Amino acid sequence: MPVDGTAPETDAELATRLAVQTGQILVKLREELFGQGASTWDVKDAGDAAAQAFLARELHEHRPDDAVLSEEEGKTDQRRFTSDRVWIIDPLDGTREFGEPGRFDWAVHVALWTADRFGAAAVSLPAINAVFSTDPAPPHPVFERERPRLVTSRSRAPYSAILVSEGLDCDAVRLGSAGAKAMSLVMGEADIYVHDGGMYQWDSAAPAAVALAAGFHVSRLDGSPIVYNERDPWLPDFIVCRPELAEPVLKSIWG
Fold it and tell me: Record-annotated residues binding Mg(2+) 1 (predicted)?
């Protein structure tokens, strides 16, 4: 117990606090650098470095015995192969969008994988001052659209997304980071997110955990559950959708 007598943070409380505070650091840094006329590349590099440094320091202080799998540190923490507690973090998901003034579709991902399931997670969207956690879980949004809305990449439409869009007659929207896309479903702004262009475990771990907690279907492209803390951090495909749309989505992809 902390020396001031307060109860220690739960894993969910820690994940949420870290996602929020990292986001606050990034928002302030972004404003300062753009105000100084910094280049897009300098803003992106500074954001990645500052977010990683803060999260690494906080996790070392508050969960020193846990392993960490992070985008910025890659596969350097070998403890994750023998640990039942691994924090999978993306300190700045959507670095491209972070480096563009005015864009909101970037995120901070903090997730805890415990042996074979999520122990806690949070995703923050700092530019809109929003955070979504596994505890308390976000309420499942009501589906009121005539046609489902599919969210996909800004730069390319994955083939699987094209199949789903055509098969379910979807309206489509484009967003940047994986966290922003997944949280658009949690916020009720979209209904399906399909990705087949390749990603890493830290790109989807926290969004997957939060979406599952909110009652969404989350799986690989073939419908199988996603397993994290695998030796190879590459995780090439990902589906998040409303549960009633899972079967039609998979049918559209595989026939």
Answer: 71, 92, 203
In a shared domain, residues 121 and 15 = yes
Residue 235 annotated in ligand binding:
no
List all residues 6 or more positions away from 193 whose beta carbon is below 8 Å from its beta carbon. 150, 151, 152, 181, 182, 184, 185, 238, 239, 240, 241
Q: Is 98 exposed, middle or buried (0-12, 13-18, 19+ CB in 10 A)?
A: buried
What is the structure's pLDDT at 155? 74
Q: What is the pLDDT of residue 4?
A: 59
232 known member of a binding site? no
Residue 93 known to bind ligand: yes
**Cβ proximity of 159 and 170 under 8 Å:** no
The CATH number given to whatever domain includes residue 118 is: 3.30.540.10
Instruction: Establish whether 105 is an annotated binding residue.
Output: no
123 and 22 share one domain = yes
The annotation status of 4 as a binding-site residue, yes or no, is no
Structure-token pair, residue 229: 């803390």
Cα separation, 53 vs 32, whole angstroms: 18
Domain assignment present for residue 100? The answer is yes
Q: Please provide the size of the chain in residues.
A: 255
Which residue's entry shows tokens 């990449």?
Answer: 153
CB burial of residue 130 (10 Å; 0-12, 13-18, 19+):
middle
Domain that holds residue 163: 149-254
164 Cβ contact partners less than 8 Å away, ≥ 6 residues apart:
150, 170, 192, 194, 249, 252, 253
- Quote the pLDDT of residue 144: 86
Taking only the tens place, the pLDDT of each residue in 63-95 is 999 999 998 765 567 889 888 999 999 999 999
The SS3 of residue 137 is: coil
